[in-house]
Amino acid sequence: MLFSSNYYDLIMYTCFLSLVMPAWVFIMVGCQMYCGRYSMVKLKSESFWAEFCWTVVPYILVFIMCYLNMQFLGEVEDLFDYSHEAKVVKVVGHQWYWSYDDWFSGGGFYDSMMTDFVGGVDKPLRVSYGVPCKFVVTSVDVIHSFALPDFAIKLDAMPGRLTSQLFLPDRCGIFVGYCSELCGAGHAYMPMVMEIVDLEKKGMKVRY
């Protein structure tokens, strides 16, 4: 989802600053010590602007991060506004494949088996662009995990329990994920492939 991508970008930007800023400080201190023949760094006088910057700038950065976080929460609330229109997509984990029952497949579950192509399946899960849906995930044998990193989706599939999450497809394409919970010998061979297509624009009808 869009808000998941924005939140991921924010986290990556914060991590980048957390790594670059300390590295820059250590480099500058090292240069000062080397140029001063390993002597201690001494300040001739206090700098008002230096103290002002290292006091005020962190507050500004925290304020910006809080603002972006509020934007993220607002987008989540917008998603829940569409919850009553969401189409239910049922997902069932097996050893070692997935079964789906989506709203336009004509009813009934169909199995999605891995093919010879790495990360490929014979029957991918297809959802429509811009149509909110609700994943309902469970398992029939052991614990699996339905994970799609491109949309920050990770839902545990547990026998006898239902796990759900709202999802709004915001871009077309083919997205690949894998079971992220160790579930046996074939754990590495149960990929999930989701295709997001614009059915209304292309006039497509998907049937299995």
From TrEMBL:
<feature type="transmembrane region" description="Helical">
    <location>
        <begin position="48"/>
        <end position="70"/>
    </location>
</feature>
<keyword id="KW-0460">Magnesium</keyword>
<keyword id="KW-0249">Electron transport</keyword>
<feature type="transmembrane region" description="Helical">
    <location>
        <begin position="6"/>
        <end position="27"/>
    </location>
</feature>
<dbReference type="GO" id="GO:0016020">
    <property type="term" value="C:membrane"/>
</dbReference>
<keyword id="KW-0472">Membrane</keyword>
<dbReference type="InterPro" id="IPR036257">
    <property type="entry name" value="Cyt_c_oxidase_su2_TM_sf"/>
</dbReference>
<dbReference type="GO" id="GO:0042773">
    <property type="term" value="P:ATP synthesis coupled electron transport"/>
</dbReference>
<keyword id="KW-0496">Mitochondrion</keyword>
<dbReference type="Pfam" id="PF00116">
    <property type="entry name" value="COX2"/>
</dbReference>
<dbReference type="InterPro" id="IPR008972">
    <property type="entry name" value="Cupredoxin"/>
</dbReference>
<dbReference type="GO" id="GO:0005507">
    <property type="term" value="F:copper ion binding"/>
</dbReference>
<keyword id="KW-1278">Translocase</keyword>
<dbReference type="InterPro" id="IPR045187">
    <property type="entry name" value="CcO_II"/>
</dbReference>
<comment type="similarity">
    <text>Belongs to the cytochrome c oxidase subunit 2 family.</text>
</comment>
<feature type="domain" description="Cytochrome oxidase subunit II copper A binding">
    <location>
        <begin position="84"/>
        <end position="208"/>
    </location>
</feature>
<keyword id="KW-0479">Metal-binding</keyword>
<keyword id="KW-1133">Transmembrane helix</keyword>
<keyword id="KW-0813">Transport</keyword>
<keyword id="KW-0812">Transmembrane</keyword>
<dbReference type="InterPro" id="IPR001505">
    <property type="entry name" value="Copper_CuA"/>
</dbReference>
<dbReference type="InterPro" id="IPR002429">
    <property type="entry name" value="CcO_II-like_C"/>
</dbReference>
<protein>
    <recommendedName>
        <fullName>cytochrome-c oxidase</fullName>
        <ecNumber>7.1.1.9</ecNumber>
    </recommendedName>
</protein>
<dbReference type="GO" id="GO:0004129">
    <property type="term" value="F:cytochrome-c oxidase activity"/>
</dbReference>
<keyword id="KW-0186">Copper</keyword>
